[in-house]
């Protein structure tokens, strides 16, 4: 089931969209401000985001780069601004599509479906396969067969680093430099906690319990083999 986020300060619009798209078979979350949406995006990875342009505090144009920094899913702008300049600005700012209010729910549904389909049509080289674990580097998601493993952004980044160098010893300094752009000795504790969380999540799945091996005093090694 695809997860879609609606971000709009109009509560009536949010409820109408939530009802329509829930009935259409989507998992839907709605947010009436950008801050709460960003918090949710940092914890979950939606398949598509529908973002209103004109909102108080943080508008859609300012919100978009923050969203793209957290999530690589498609973003569709909704706006009452219908000038050509506004549409061009929206698309050039990084949005995947731009719709003008008022809009047809059916057309919006078609555009969402199209964007999700485009985003999930990936090349073979974007998949790291360690059957039963698959890492989709384009979508920034990990799967146990077809089931998505719920990972935070940092957990995913750590998994990708270890898996991309499967069988090799990865030290704390390399992990810190990759994940935090720098490393000091105090970071070791944070890395150990992050790795522990990741190992616990992987350990819930048969065959992934020992995917990450601890190398005492050195770092970690990813033990699964490419399949």
Helical proportion? 40-55%
Question: Sheet with the most strands?
Answer: 5 strands, parallel
The chain-level structural class is: alpha/beta
What's the rounded overall pLDDT mean? 88
What's the total count of β strands?
12
Q: How far is the N terminus from the C terminus?
A: 27 Å
How would you describe the overall organization of this protein?
By secondary structure, the protein is of the alpha/beta class. It has helices at residues 11-23, 34-43, 60-70, 84-92, 105-120, 153-164, 172-180, 187-202, and strands at residues 3-7, 27-31, 48-52, 75-79, 97-100, 127-130, 133-136, 141-144, 147-149, 169-171, 212-215, 219-222. The strands form 3 sheets. A 5-stranded parallel beta sheet has the order 2-1-3-4-5, sandwiched between helices. The chain has a 4-stranded antiparallel beta sheet with strand order 6-7-8-9, covered by helices on one side. A hairpin with a 2-residue loop joins strand 8 (141-144) and strand 9. The model has no long low-confidence stretch (mean pLDDT 88).
